[in-house]
Amino acid sequence: MNDSDITTLMKEHGIRPTANRIIVAKALLEGRRPLTMSELEERIGSIDKSGIFRALTLFKEHLLVHTLEDIEGVRYELCHSHDHTIDNDMHMHFHCEQCGETICLEDFSIPEVQLPEGYLMQSATFVLKGICPKCRKHLG
Length: 140
Prior knowledge:
Low-confidence stretches: none
Number of domains: 1
CATH architecture: Orthogonal Bundle
Distance between the termini: 38 Å
Radius of gyration: 16 Å
Oligomer: single chain
Structural class: alpha+beta
CATH class: Mainly Alpha
Strand content: 15-25%
CATH topology: Arc Repressor Mutant, subunit A
Mean pLDDT: 85
CATH superfamily: Winged helix-like DNA-binding domain superfamily/Winged helix DNA-binding domain
Number of helices: 5
Strand order of the largest sheet: 1-3-2
Number of strands: 6
């Protein structure tokens, strides 16, 4: 996905694409996994923490990012939904308890849950925990 694609995705989500917002979105995309605020700061370097946080807050309000929590705190990932009114890119994640990495399992949808009458689900976080293949190989 290039800058033009990112700009288009932002516009589809009702976000005005500024230089800083494009940089933050690109960092999320290039991360290839959900990233913490610290990881984003380290990757970007040219934008201070408050600027990154403002972009992420706006992205979350417009459903351009997913957030999930693991042992290291909140992680962010770019949502590939092309709709700012519904998140149709919800998927599972896997957190390796050995190396600490959290990865997307994009081919595995979050199971449908029947909520009691009157409840409206707007998002869901589904994190499986265990040992990733790389770490498992080292365990013998």
